[in-house]
Amino acid sequence: MSRVLDVQNLSKNFGGLAAVREVTLHVNAREIVSLIGPNGAGKTTVFNLVSGVLRPTQGKVIFDGRSMNRMRTDQYAGLGMARTFQNLALFKNSSVVENLLVGRHTHIASNPLQSMMFLRSARREEAQARRKVEEIIDFLEIQHLRNRVVGSLSYGQQKRVELGRALACEPKLLLLDEIVAGMNQEEREDIARFILDIRDEFGIAILMIEHDMRVVMDLSDRVYVLEFGGLIASGRPDEVRADPAVLAAYLGKG
């Protein structure tokens, strides 16, 4: 099975603090992988390193066979990596459709002048972008919200829009940062269903940080566990759930 993401001996120091220590993990094509651990374990730092928000002190991030260490952050989406954030990063005063269209920017080759002149190439790209956005709206079952201002939506609905914007990039790898946090049970079940469908229907590999252990155990093909910035366990969900180190560190059992 081909690897979409290969993280090798990744470390990040902030001054004298080692936030991440020699983390090695991988995500295969069409695989759902979870990264879990107690608060402060370094999960978000790993995500920031993988997605280019931070640069590693040492180690490598290889995405789709390409080293990302010297890539600019704005190049990641164009290469096929998309991310959602724990704290929503939407345009609250714009509509759902407008937010999703932002996710298409990596597929737009026309420059602003061509768009203003509405040349044939620009019209074609615009039509393609809108078709893709409508497909995502149908997939996420938010047809009734398409013209609503995002700031007027519930938190769970906004999370769905952010997921849609990430999908609009047509990624090879999707990074989900606590996608079900703050949702009620029905919303969590809906998002869990969408995650499986994203993998099964679109063939997108997924790496997610998640605190909801039911979601992690039900959806993941493999799980990595962090504590104090270092990996303490990895394997299938049933293996990780029974690991004594995980029970002690994550679940608080001796």
Provide a descriptive summary of the structure in words.
This protein has helices at 43-50, 76-79, 96-102, 112-117, 120-139, 155-168, 185-202, 213-219, 237-241, 244-249, and strands at residues 3-14, 17-28, 32-36, 58-63, 66-67, 81-83, 173-177, 205-209, 222-227, 230-235. It is of the alpha/beta class. The chain folds into 2 domains: 1-80 and 173-181 and 205-254, Rossmann fold (3-Layer(aba) Sandwich); 82-170, 3-Layer(aba) Sandwich (Rossmann fold), CATH 3.40.50. The chain has a 6-stranded mixed beta sheet with strand order 6-7-8-3-9-10, with helices on both faces. A hairpin with a 2-residue loop joins strand 9 (222-227) and strand 10 (230-235). Helix 3 (96-102) packs parallel to helix 6. The chain starts with a strand and ends in a 5-residue tail after the last helix.
Decide which structural class fits the backbone: alpha/beta
How many E-type strands?
10
Tell me the CATH architecture of the largest domain.
Answer: 3-Layer(aba) Sandwich
Mass-distribution shape: globular
Describe the sheet with the most strands. Answer: 6 strands, mixed
The assembly state of the depicted protein chains is single chain
Low-confidence stretches: 109-116
**CATH superfamily heading of the largest domain:** P-loop containing nucleotide triphosphate hydrolases
CATH class of the largest domain: Alpha Beta
Would you tell me the overall average pLDDT? 89
Total DSSP helices? 10
Distance between the termini: 37 Å
* Count of domain modules: 2
- Bin the strand percentage: 15-25%
How much helicity do the residues have?
25-40%
